[in-house]
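tool_log.txt
---
The assistant was asked to compare two proteins side by side. It first ran the structure predictor on the initial sequence, then on the second. Raw inputs and outputs are pasted verbatim so the downstream comparison step can read them without reformatting.
(1)
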Amino acid sequence: MTSHSVTAKWRHVVGVWIVALAVLAGPALAGSDAAARLKSWLDLGASLAATDESDASVDEPAVKGPPLPLHCIEGYGGGAITPIAYVVNPGAKGNILSVPTTAYTFINMGSKKLQVFSVTQVFFNRLEFGYALNHLEVGSLYDDLRKAGLNMGRDHVNLHHFNLRLNFLDENAFDLPLPAMTAGIHFKYNDSINRIDKSLGGAFSGIGYEHPYGIDYTMTATKMLPKLAFGRPVILTGGLRLSNASQLGYFGFGNEHNLTFEGSILYMPIDQVLVGYEFRQKRNPYHRIRKLVDEEDNWHMFSLSWIVNDRLTISGLWGVFGQIANTKADCSLGLQIKYEF
């Protein structure tokens, strides 16, 4: 299949998703009660998170919260590139099974293009299962390798993420100002990198590639400060990750796991808008191939999300990813459309 036909196929899929989400969102957008439900949830969340609130007898209203957090590109609750401790769409208290959440994310990384389809499902309000398919078009890396006399055999990679996260500590548990705490295990499988390595005569194996699969382990803490900035909520997150992935797994996995830090700051200036900054530390599991596979840089992501209603969120993304293989991706623009059923 040619690069042009692959691109055309994915554009068609994107169009279908956008139309489908617009149809699903239509009934909610038509009524005025969505904004009222959203405001009531925000008021409730602020009161529950405030540490000086002593009246715990207020009944929780039967309203659905806003569609937060977003979907990380790896297929779990968070920002675009890092997790937060809140699970996605946990459902009403006491529910065994919540309804699923889906998202489509596109990020233009210069010559490289990333498309993500993700879905999450929560059990018992705290156990989150997630899956994401990442389709990365490698762009100029394919051409640069051909100029060097090497043939990748394909111009894209597919990376599958299977995630299990447990929110084992509720925010403000034991009547103490504690953060929410969530532990995660994330299995990843790259269905393309083995064939690419063989086509390149073992080039990736020569710099540290060992497996087409790997496991990340995460521990995440999140705390909402309901009136920190101009009387509006700020959500702070910090966490640790243990991973053996090269560029999240797009170029395979090494043998040794590296410990890294990740975190985010989210701010809600008005009820329907969420502004975010994320940081993800990166380590280098591989050696370099000069001008073709360079060292990894830390990732930064800025986001602006519109909470359309209590089910739909549309987010604009701006990523600073530094070196990705052979090129820089320091002005990467993206879009996420997320829908909670």
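(2)
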Amino acid sequence: MQHLPVGVGVVGYGYWGPNLVRNFASSETAKVIRVCDFDAGRLATCQRHNPTVGTTTDFQDLLNDPAVEAIAVATPTRTHYDLALAALRAGKHVLVEKPLAPTSKQVRQLIDEAKRRNLVLMVDHTFLYTPAVQKIQQLISENVLGDVFYYNSNRASLGLFQNDVNVIWDLAVHDISIILHILNEKPTAVSATGVSHVADMPENMAHITLFFGSSCVAHISVNWLSPVKVRQIFIGGSRKMIAYDDLEPVDKIKIYDRGITVSDTPERAHQLKIGYRAGDMWAPHIPTREALSTEIAHFVDCIRTGCTPISSGTSGLHTIEILEAASRSIAAQGKPVRINHDEPALAD
């Protein structure tokens, strides 16, 4: 059966909006109907690049247009909840730039609204759709790494400083969403520290530790005040280890047959012998397709089939619950905070 392209409206044409418009416009399964932004100059730029797309400074125009079946939100975090809720109440499917909303309470309300109206609510956790993260998830699910001991990441750059969210809500959100996607368990507690080097601005540097029920631990370092851009992840397992550098043009993932062996006998349990295993390294082929294109195709497919998105509202909720707990820990100078991952229930 031949489907007509899904009509899409995009609100926000600043940093991320142009990428959304470009990928929706190049999709065979979607069509950009309108773009909304308060800045007339941005809309003029949009129209130069996309002459067939309508533009408006009034968000209500997107809500009232029957040709717009879905709305993508790429605006400051503080506006996500109100825009997404209005879109859902207007009967539109919704894709929201990360983070889904400023609070977990607001995310739960969005999830309830989408369920009530049988609409797709999806958060733009783009890294989940990268071929590299998909490969890592496959390796872990196939037990190639064995038991996962740790996840260490360093995500740094010079800016962009923001005034409505701190660095963990801007950068650590990527690693938290990846951890929830690739590991077979959720963190039970978080400890975090952070500091601001600019007066009256949110924290621009932070370190997060996630604790699990098992011996696995995750360390996330994020920084807006770095002289160089860094996007590195190291995952250690009992069988294999992974080094992932997102800035590498070709071999983004390297798999190492390295680690330790522990030998002991029941008679001499107090005398452990540590051996070191240094095997081969190999780099699996990683396709070069753009993650956002894959994500948009998935969003449209979920609209057509009713499938639950990989980065669903519930996925966004669990991420924000961890961010909220980390924020409380920063305020308490690193005191560990328990994390409760209650599944959202549809309100009566």
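---
observation on (2): The first helix runs from residue 17 to 26. The chain is about 30% helix and 30% strand.
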